[in-house]
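BUG-370 | component: ligand-complex export | severity: low

The export step for iron/sulfur cluster jobs runs without errors, but we want the raw record kept on the ticket for reference. Input record follows.
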Amino acid sequence: MSNLKDFVRVRADYFLGRPQKIKNLYVETTIACANRCYMCPARAVKKESTYMPDQLFKKIIEELAEYNFDGNLHVYGQADPLLDKKIFERIDYSHKSLPNAKIHLISTLNHLTDEMIDKLISAPLERVATSIYELDANTFLKIRGSRKFKEKLTNTIKFAKKWASVQPYEFCIHFFECDFNRQEAEFIKHFLEIIPCTLTQMSLHPISLRGVIKKKRDSWRFGTCMYSVPKITGDGNVSICFFDTNSDLKIGNVKNNSFWELLSSKNSCSLRRDILFRRSNISEKFCDVCDCAENHTLFFFLPIHKVINKIPFLPYFNSVVRPDQTKMRHSSMDVEKKLISFNELFGNNSDEWLDVIANLRNDFYKSTDS
Ligand code: SF4
Ligand code: SF4
């Protein structure tokens, strides 16, 4: 009964545009990123790299501390947080002020030095993640717009090895199959079974990041994330959507108001309702074309979607309920075992990884051909 009550209450809140408990907050301390990924809306417009002032960062963390924030604090937006020279100080400060929050960091790892690896390993984090979009320099250039392929892989391999020896938190690798055939995808799965990490995730295409890749869909789509996953940019703008690159969905600025007041302000509730009921064409730029939006055509009103999701013989219903990106998500095998096979392959000399990967690929293709 209480489940049903919650279901009704949450739907009523959705219709009124009221925020829900904040599960994930993105604080974008910098907008700097050296990559130029084709699907990244943040890179579509050339912007000067900016960094959040200390005073502003502290104000945000103090406000979160007032309500004992215990959700996930992501210290990044659409950028590489390791380009923020103060990031480790900020992580420490956040951890001390918000002991119950879980701090997450996702980075390209392109600029990782040995000193940064040590800092990263000892940082009070819940999870570090990186995305590998490719295992060859040409595809890397095509997707990332960067020639730093060797740096990316070398740093990832170095970090993975160090991380595996202590495992202070989760290390996740996301892989997006963009440009290769099934056999290459199988090889990458094989590669991910060797590289030490706690979780790997493969997706058949990079997340659309608001329509950069995908076209508008017809069904009634919106992201429940707009109720519980806000973002604060380096200049203090608060947006109801964590993918909002240019603060188009801005509800105010934390320099002038409290973060909590902004979240439940009239302005923010009415913006959510505008998107939900498609009262303005802003949703065409956001939820209508975003992979994070769910299709609510039918099941939004029926508290049975959890049951439907569990029925294996109803793939159609499953595809209706779930976002339509196909994912192969698997927990990795035992990290200790991975480390042994990884050390056998890479030894102490991770700089030779290119040859190692080429040999691995050849062996893998030979074994699948025979
Ligand atoms: S997707 Fe990430 S790595 Fe690529 S340009 Fe955007 S912020 Fe940088
Ligand atoms: S655009 Fe995407 S991320 Fe933003 S609120 Fe809509 S569904 Fe969520």
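Assignee comment: Attached the raw record above. The longest helix spans residues 149-166.
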